[in-house]
TrEMBL record:
The chain crosses the membrane at residues 20-41, 126-146, 152-174. It is found in: Membrane. This is Translocator protein-like isoform X1. GO terms for biological process: tetrapyrrole metabolic process. It is a multi-pass membrane protein. GO terms for cellular component: mitochondrial outer membrane. Keywords: Membrane, Transmembrane, Transmembrane helix. Belongs to the TspO/BZRP family.
Length: 193
């Protein structure tokens, strides 16, 4: 059996070998997704255990709810690693990395904003408009990545495909689920009757 000192030395070597910038780049986009998911998961459940989302008219091509978590984890990890590759090829945060990494950060902020618009505000039209703007920003990011690292741009392609798919889902929900407006009831004055 190895001594505790040997185990600590081995662990220390592994920690020193880890590529922390790459790991951080992969984790960062996931954090926003996890925070959104945890925050809004508790708000969409009804007392009967069924959420208002379950009652929406959804597209026939809408996947089961359980697909979204794994899909977004893979997509966030992929785009995060893509940003790392660009960061590395540009020599870190340098003049040449400003444009692609700013575009990346902007599209990531837009990505994280969709969930509060859709699940928090329940504004399906605004959510659709927002995801279209996100798609444009993600496309601009991908084009900018091509100039620095072709693998990074290729890692963004599944994300662009998913955004196209998600946009179709968002559009369908917007067009088939009118936002509920508060009902106005007539108040009768008892003195005039």
């Amino acid at each position: 059996m190895e001594s505790l000192e040997t185990v600590i030395e081995s662990a220390s070597e592994i920690i020193n070998m880890a590529n922390w910038p790459a790991i951080g780049s992969i984790i960062l986009p996931n954090v926003g997704g996890w925070v959104n998911g945890l925050y809004f998961a508790g708000q969409i459940r009804s007392e009967e255990g069924k959420s208002w989302y379950d009652n929406l008219k959804k597209a026939p091509w809408n996947p089961p709810k359980w697909v979204f978590g794994p899909a977004w984890t893979v997509l966030y990890s992929s785009m995060g690693y893509a940003s790392y590759l660009v960061w590395e090829d540009c020599g870190g945060f340098t003049e040449s990395s400003v444009l692609p990494l700013t575009l990346y950060g902007s599209q990531l902020a837009l990505n994280w904003s969709w969930t509060p618009i859709f699940f928090g505000m329940k504004d399906y039209k605004l959510a659709f408009i927002e995801i279209v703007v996100l798609g444009v920003a993600a496309t601009a990011t991908t084009i900018s990545f091509v100039h620095y690292n072709k693998t990074a741009a290729a890692l963004m392609l599944p994300y662009l495909g998913w955004l196209t798919y998600a946009s179709s889902l968002s559009y369908y929900i917007w067009k088939n689920n009118p936002k509920s407006e508060p009902r106005v009831t007539e108040i009768k004055d008892e003195k005039t009757q």
